Amino acid sequence: MSERKIFEPTEKQELKWNNEPPVMPSDDEFKATWKKSHGGKVTGWGLGKRQWVVSSWGMTRDYQVGMWQGRVDKANGLNYSDERLSAGYNIGYNLGYTEYESNHKGWDTATRTNFDEKWVN
Length: 121
Prior knowledge:
Helix content is 62%, strand content 0%. By secondary structure, it is mainly α. It has two domains: 25-57, no CATH class; 59-121, no CATH class. It starts with 10 loop residues before the first helix and ends with a helix.
């Protein structure tokens, strides 16, 4: 088994990411918003909540660090980690880990090469 590499953001990434997560609306607020935009139906409001979480947390530092750490762990063949550092980190880690292969295939050659050289054992 390989030694775990810990993802360290670049200075440019640090400047781009927010440190404060947004305040999440209550489930009742999500349901009301969903109902207004879906002809009075509440069914499926959880999808709206998921979309809000991903778009709102997507540029927070915790989310991004978790996502990149998930990618690094998956790329190095490590098992999924349940660190539970913060909600944003956990959401990012899950997406980074579970969607790594798809993301890696979709990156341009330079991005893929840079990632592999820096983060893959």
